[in-house]
Design goal:
single chain, mainly beta, Neuraminidase, about 0% helix, globular
């Protein structure tokens, strides 16, 4: 149900399986991670609407992120894919759109990362032409054996060298850059700590920062040495996909407005989530990073909203994981 009557919501495509990522690689072409068929799907947007989804890459292992990367040194392009335990890419050798791409062999740039209760999620552009990779924890609450679990990693897309830029991040699904502020990312707190704790988090990346997990408790919600979130949301509601509202968007907001999906709860007696929310970043002198958030519900009573991304024209798209349906907000 729409909360703001000035916003239009429409179903624009289906048959997406179980989508975990959506990425616009141009104004006409959308890529989708489908964990049902273990494929990357491509859809073309024309004046008549979307084409039927076509699998351009198959035989993957729980793809949760895809990123088209342009080499700064030449005209080569790579398509990076986040899978369970590994970050891989295909060199694009020719073709002007996803259905025409000629792809070289699958290459592995990082592998052997532990998986369990959660896995590796979004890939984002990092600073200085690097990549940021979201790596979930293997458990609900534990001490990880693999130092790459429950982190954000910065990766050199050519050499594969990486550094861990954030720890204590239990299950960060996605993130986005906000000009003059930094990289803002979602993170979901642990289960089985009560109906109303811990909250889901909106965090601001600080290189080398520790974000609290697994040391967060009711009595110690901000462990010593940790960076508190700049924003909280309903406990166990699962805040996931997030993107910056572009200045050309007709949706409500300003230059520091984000939109995010709230997948919905399973670890609550009273159901929560299944929403699209608007997050406005505001100055907050009481926070050590100087920022806070104001959150507004835009749509409620959805099924399972998960990936979300703005189109270059300012329209917002999101997909329902259990339904395989793509929606547009304008």
């Amino acid at each position: 149900m729409l909360i703001d009557n000035e916003i239009e919501l429409e179903e624009v495509a289906d048959g997406l399986g179980k989508p975990t990522c959506i990425t616009w690689v141009s104004e006409e072409w959308l890529l989708v991670c489908d964990t049902n068929s273990q494929s990357i799907l491509a859809l073309e947007l024309t004046e008549q609407g979307f084409s039927e989804p076509i699998a351009i890459i198959s035989n993957l292992d729980n793809p949760h992120g895809v990123l088209l990367w342009d080499s700064p040194n030449n005209d080569s392009k790579r398509l990076f894919i986040s899978q369970a335990g590994s970050l891989n890419y295909f060199e694009i050798t020719s073709g002007s759109n996803p259905t025409e791409w000629e792809l070289a062999y699958l290459e592995t740039i990082v592998e052997g990362v532990a998986t369990g209760s959660h896995q590796q999620n979004a890939i984002s552009e990092g600073p200085n032409n690097t990549l940021l990779w979201h790596s979930g924890s293997t458990c609900n609450v534990c001490e990880e054996e693999d130092i790459r679990s429950a982190t954000l990693m910065e990766i050199n897309p050519v050499s594969g060298n990486y550094s861990i830029v954030a720890t204590g991040v239990r299950n960060s699904f996605d993130g986005t850059w906000v000009p003059s502020i930094g990289y803002v990312f979602t993170d979901n707190g642990h289960d089985w700590a009560g109906e109303n704790f811990p909250p889901e988090e909106i965090n601001l990346l600080e290189e080398g920062g520790f974000y609290g997990w697994p040391n967060v408790t009711k009595d110690n919600p901000i462990p010593e040495g940790s960076i508190p979130p700049i924003g909280n949301y309903t406990p166990h509601s699962s805040v996931n996909g997030i993107d910056l509202r572009p200045v050309n968007s007709s949706l409500p907001g300003g230059e520091t407005t984000l939109y995010a999906t709230v997948f919905g709860s399973w670890n609550k007696l009273v159901p929560a989530g299944k929403e699209i929310i608007r997050i406005d970043i505001v100055e907050d002198s009481s926070h050590p990073q100087g920022w806070g958030t104001e959150v507004t519900v835009v749509i409620e009573d959805l099924q399972s909203p998960l990936p979300l991304e703005f189109h270059p024209n300012g329209d917002l798209y999101f997909a329902e994981y259990t339904e395989g349906i793509l929606y547009r907000l304008s």
